[in-house]
Amino acid sequence: MVSERDTIIIDAGTTCYEIARQLPSDFKGTIITHSAPAIQQCLRLASARTICLGGELLHDSQAFIGEMAVAATARLRAQKAFIGAAAVRPDGLYVDRDLELAAKRSLIRSADQVIVVAAAGKMGRSALVHLMDFSPVDVLVTDAPPPAEIAAALEESGVELVVAQSST
């Protein structure tokens, strides 16, 4: 889903971290991220450009958040944003706390294409804070087909569903 010279946004979280891990060592594009682990992965990409968003570091999620992250993101544009969520439900995406909302929404606004990456275990799960409905989402990538009610909501919103195959 990523061309060798794309400008991409990588959100924080374990699923998005895997996007950074899977970038080939000869990737020549630009990575914009507020994820400390993704930044660490970018150190191995000698031909890539990495733009790190500042802000307050949340130690448990290892993400930079707050007005500094939002302000930095607002001046940037990427072809694709890979966004994580704590839960995917028929009415949209959820996160565990509202501290993440402003940064995530800013990342979403800064991309031409929004790709949500969510493991099947997040389908139908409960999480505290509603991030958004499916209207800004272009693609949802997961590792197993979602429950019927989520699949129907995705289809109704025009979201492309990609069920990835395991690389192991």
TrEMBL record:
<dbReference type="InterPro" id="IPR050313">
    <property type="entry name" value="Carb_Metab_HTH_regulators"/>
</dbReference>
<protein>
    <recommendedName>
        <fullName>DeoR-like transcriptional repressor C-terminal sensor domain-containing protein</fullName>
    </recommendedName>
</protein>
<dbReference type="InterPro" id="IPR037171">
    <property type="entry name" value="NagB/RpiA_transferase-like"/>
</dbReference>
<dbReference type="InterPro" id="IPR014036">
    <property type="entry name" value="DeoR-like_C"/>
</dbReference>
<feature type="domain" description="DeoR-like transcriptional repressor C-terminal sensor">
    <location>
        <begin position="1"/>
        <end position="143"/>
    </location>
</feature>
<dbReference type="Pfam" id="PF00455">
    <property type="entry name" value="DeoRC"/>
</dbReference>
<keyword id="KW-0678">Repressor</keyword>
